[in-house]
Amino acid sequence: MDLVLTFDRTSDVSKLEGCNTRGVAYRWDIFQRWLRRIPSGSSALDFGAGSLRESFDLVQRGFCVTSVDNDISVLEAYKAKYQWPNALHEVVAAPDLETALAKLGDRKFSLILCFDVLEHLADPAPTLKELARRLDENGLLFVTVPNGWTLFELAFRINLILANVTGRSFRPGEPHLQMNSPAAWRTLLDRGGFKILEHEMQIGFFANTAAALIQLPLLLGGRLARRFGVKVDAEALAARLYGGPQAHLMELLDRRTKPLLNRLYAWNLFVLEKAT
Q1: How many domains does the chain have?
Q2: pTM of the predicted model as reported, rounded to 2 decimal places
């Protein structure tokens, strides 16, 4: 049986530096600025490592990286896609992320990445407390999570409700189970045992909303078409309809209106340390 490599980002930019999405090449420096505080050669945990893009980035920077996710076969398949510069990397997996963490014994880390993970957990609070326990006293936790107020997240919520009603299943780790506002995420991180050092919003309101208004109807139409045996590449069609000049215009509007619409941006970027 062929492996399903969900969320393949092996050819994308590392999220430590930015993200290519909604037709825009977003770049940020929030993580790289704080990364300078951690000496090269330190131990790092990539929690929910996915396609290992950030693990590979950290190894290239000289960190000793442990990548954790829920399928060892998928992790090994992704690992084979990179040219690793040294042996400072290991993968650990279990059917659920909490069990995978338990395999690490009492190990602690100077840096923990938790990118696009917490929204997939039914209850992130115990996981955050465990990550806090595994973070060195002067260590940092980098987190990215979506803004539950956006149109894409609303569509994900409706899709999840419909799937539960109809009995439709998702691939492991696919659905978003948390639909939190930026303020709600801050509260959750605080209760998890962390102090927020910096919080930044990225992926603008207009770019995200315009992409959703085009992509979501096409994806729904593509799903319905497949039920009748008609093959439609909805994602490719959406990319042709929204991109280039349209995306540039939306990004320009976002830059002009960020002070006003910042809290409606699509993505939260957090830098945290253990609360004292």
Answers
A1: 1
A2: 0.92
